[in-house]
Amino acid sequence: MSVDIDLMLRYSTLFLVEIGYRPAFSRILHPSRRPSGTAGRGSKSRKTQGLKYRRGKDGTTQTPRPAGKLIGPNPFKVALILGELNLPYTIDPIELADVKTPAVISLNPNGRLPALTDPITGLTIWESGAIIEYLVATYDNGPKRKLSFEPGSVDHWHAIQWLHFQMSGQGPYFGQSFWFQNHHPEILPSAITRYENEARRVCSVLDGWLGGRLGVSGGGIGKERKYLVAEKCSFADLAFIPWQENVQKCIRYGADGGAFDQEKEFPHMHAWLERIKGREAVKKAFVARAEAKKGQTEREVKK
Predict the structure, then answer these.
(1) Which residues does the annotated region (Disordered) include (predicted)?
(2) What are phi and psi of 253, to 5 degrees?
(3) What is the pLDDT along the chain (303 residues), one digit of tens a residue?
(4) Among 15, 158, 32, CA closest to 78
(5) What is the CATH number of the domain that holds 135?
């Protein structure tokens, strides 16, 4: 059995999950119809957490090969999940104009990215939160779940709850705050203030929960938490990281009117962010993203 997942990501960048053989560039926007169970020549199969993938003749798997423009928050959070689950992938470029082409619309009627096609299950799915839920349900379902929890358990539902808070709270408010402060053609103080305040509110929820000030029966101060759910880093924690590490671009001023200081104003959230950024898979994903940004800068200079 082979797996060949085409994962298309936003900002003129395509992540290609290579669990199997490397497809040609011409197949990027036209996912393979190769039937499952068809082995590639000169490849060997082995299992990892119930997932079969192939190594080449030299016994190696592909490592991230970044290209294209800077990876945006939604694609990057999917990349963090892929890295933690040890699903190898590469990055290949596509033009931003292509997101509205029939090839992309066939994968996502909204004409946005990321989108994922898995020929093993025959599923095409879009929206980063849905992709994350799919990946952990499909490839993190062994006896030792790395990022997820037993389906139906309290921890499982709490992780889903935090993922939805990221999708409906952090992502939209951070995104709008970032836009109005950095890219909107007009300076709109009311819009800037509104979304900056909402971004701060999201931070206060995270800091209060992690610091034990929220979610305590009868009020008072509870036990500090290292992660959002239980005692391990889950997909819920990882989903917050891409926007959270850009918080300085979304909140300008601190509560005292000076420059915003995340560590001072939200110490528990800051410690949580640094703790997750210290994970090996997360550090590798940040390196890959930095290389993608560097490559884009070099191409722009050459123009």
Answers:
(1) 30-68
(2) -120, 145
(3) 333 344 444 333 334 443 332 332 222 322 333 323 333 333 333 333 333 333 334 444 432 222 223 367 888 898 899 899 997 665 545 566 777 888 778 878 988 777 777 767 778 888 999 999 999 999 999 889 999 999 999 999 999 999 999 999 999 999 999 999 999 999 999 999 999 999 999 999 999 999 999 876 655 678 899 999 999 999 999 999 999 999 999 999 988 888 999 999 999 999 999 999 999 999 999 998 888 777 665 555 455
(4) 15
(5) 3.40.30.10
